[in-house]
Amino acid sequence: MIHGLSDVQTGDIGENTNIWQFCVVLKGAKIGKNCNINAGVFIENDVVIGDNVTIKSGVQIWDGIALEDNVFIGPNVTFTNDFTPRSKQYPKEFLKTNISTGASLGANCTIIGGINIGAYAMIGAGSVLTKNVGTQELWYGNPAKHKGYVCRCGQKCDDSLLCRDCKGKIQ
Q: Taking all residues of the chain, what is their mean pLDDT, rounded to a whole number?
């Protein structure tokens, strides 16, 4: 479903993806199936979004950003893709940022361009992330720092990467 009050220029959208009102999706973007793109989201050309991704309202996904399957992007998350931005001056190549399978980014966090966030990692709301994040790591703060680990289900756990509740059986 593509809401009539959105401007979607790409045809590369998977089945059962919803794009809500006031979204702009440029022609080069690739969006997987079963995604939910909430109101007021902007997606540039050189963007790849996997399957089952949720992007909450007020997010801009700039050139060079890739979201793998089952990623959650909270409301008003901010991405960057240029270390030295100037009006009307463009880099030879925008920074590449990859958000791996199952990772979650909390509301209002800022992700500095050129980093990788590992599978099932969690970034706390309001954090400013400037470094790569490993698999199932929990980071938060300004600047964000490694504070522990989360199970694939999202609960805090120790470095075994398994919580007491699901014991890592959540897929």
A: 95
